[in-house]
Amino acid sequence: MEKYAEYILGLDVAAVISAILIFFFGNLDAETVFILATELIFTLVVLALAFTFLYYLQIGKNNWLLLPSVMVLAIGAALTFFSWFIGGLVALIGLVFLLLCKDGMESTEKRGIFITYAGFAILAIMPPLGAFINLQFGVTDYVILLIGMILVVFGVITTIKLRKHVEMVSVGFMLLTLSFLLIAPSHELLSIHGNGSYGIYDQSIIALASIVFFIFFVNVVLYRLAERKVIDSIETGYKLLRKGKYEEAAAKFKEALKSLPNDERVLNGLGLALMKMGNYRESEEYLRKLVRINNDKLYRTNLGNLYFRSGRIDKAIEIYQEVLKEDPQYYNALNNLARCYMEKGDYEKARELLEKAIEVDQDKKAAKVNYYFLLTAMGMDEEASKYKAQVGGLIE
Hints:
Radius of gyration: 27 Å
Shape: elongated
Number of strands: 2
């Protein structure tokens, strides 16, 4: 979905602008025109929501909440055919789970999303609740409107004051606002109040959702523009890293970090460069931040490598074992865990791991080289010599 991101963002903007124009400036006096306009908005927003949903899923790392949230959303959608009120409530619960299904979000970001969601949910629940139990609009509704609006504003401010170009969080807010933009047309199409016009709750949701959408749309655009500006620095940094020019590589990554403080490629490259330079404290800072953003096995293995290099063998073992629980065939973790056991003198365990790593990938040389040195360390010089001859000129 990444290569189609610009098209998805364009569809999102088209849906929101169309909704604003029709909701606030369209001639909706005729009932047939009103229903056609409502159906058009509903279709556009559903399409935008579907593609944004897929886009959101492929950004960053999903946690255990993803599957339950999708299941609850599906159940909510199914229930609307039998009871729109209960189905809508279930779908709202599924939405908040979905918005929080990403690893790497800081607590402040999650809190901002949840508060904003709560504000919109209060505004969204009142029209169907009123229709469900025959409530009449009154002074209390103005108080509820004010509370909902305050929560939305507070949630957005809580998030944007972090002053970060975090694409994942911004797309999450866009997903939230598109979801609530469906509320107004749904009320009409499902005949929840069906009065041929949008009430004050619907109008409040439309206005707030549109404003919040464009705040975070701009944030995504700024992120992508910043990314384009520093892409050369990132590519150059990795080239320098491969050539062993670690100080120059670190300088390039730090330059990119100013524009993309939470970019995985930048944090990983900078962490590796600093580790190779022996600057373990600073390297750990960036690699740990990287793992918080995306708990990927590669990034965790790199953090384990840092602990190994800095002499924290037990900590490195813990990291590698966690990775291997998720993927028992992961070559880098197998090889590096074996190195840890070699360092601790547990040669049999190291041998078992290296043999498994060699079996997993016959083409990579790291485990084969380590296996030769392991045989030598075990005093098996004759077997080591045979193994060296067997692997050809791999071992000098």
